[in-house]
Amino acid sequence: MVFYFYPMKKEHTIFGIYPVLEAIKAETDIDKVYVQKDINSDKIEDMLKKLEALNVSINHVPVEKLNRLTRGNHQGIVALTSPITFAELEETVEKVLSSKKTPLFVVLDQISDVRNFGAILRTAECTGVDAVIIQKKGGAPVSGDTVKASAGAIFNIPICKVDHIKDVLYYLQGSGVKTVAATEKTETSIYSVDLKQPVAIVMGSEGTGVSKSILSIVDESAALPVLGEINSLNVSVACGAVLYEVVRQRGA
């Protein structure tokens, strides 16, 4: 496996109207923005339009949340930057496809819990995943907590942040990569799916799983057997089980 060592960056909190505006102008990699609920500010509204165009995740929160995040005058807006530099999708996929016969990708469809996200990254690194792909909006932030939950694995694996998961799946399929969604909404067992070829495993959100629109375009859907009374697994546990089935089939 090729290890990708990202330049280490300290997670940074930017607050106040003008500092956040300057961060946008400088094309800083903003991971998430918190905005005070019901704030009346034309400048903030203009900024939010710019951030929405960039597909930055925006959360409207009580002022108490902003007060906890900062020690100064936040003016109703706080931005969080990522501790890593994200990899470019096409460049990463092309590099992997040119160097490996059977690449393995993980695509996360709206994973929202930082601990689950970090645990998935840790398992992905241990199982030889070549890149993890996430969506810009709606997912867990890449934060210091993610770094901790991943046990540092986040620095050893490319993470690509994209506008739309659907476009990624079409691109991977067009590149000869089989897309497999892990979901309980199928009778097909993961153990009957051929995972020895180039493959991308799609994992869904903690609440609803892989979305219907994604299930409609993947090449295959597969489920893990659940023998107890609880009918679903934690997403990070399920992802680990699926990735180790890939490892088993490939004889690693």
In short:
The chain is 35% helix and 19% strand.
What does this structure look like?
This protein has 2 domains: 13-81, Ribosomal protein L30/S12 (60s Ribosomal Protein L30, Chain: A, 2-Layer Sandwich); 89-250, SPOUT methyltransferase, trefoil knot domain (Alpha/beta knot, 3-Layer(aba) Sandwich), CATH 3.40.1280.10. The protein is 35% helix and 19% strand. It has helices at 17-25, 42-53, 63-69, 89-99, 114-126, 144-149, 165-174, 212-215, 235-250; strands spanning 13-15, 30-36, 57-61, 77-81, 104-109, 131-135, 159-162, 178-182, 199-204, 220-222. Strands 7-6-5-9-8-10 form a 6-stranded parallel sheet, sandwiched between helices. It has a 4-stranded mixed sheet with strand order 1-4-2-3. Helix 6 links the parallel strand 6 and strand 7 (159-162). Helix 1 runs parallel beside helix 2 (42-53) and helix 5 (114-126) packs parallel to helix 9. The longest helix is centred in the C-terminal third of the chain and has 16 residues, at 235-250.
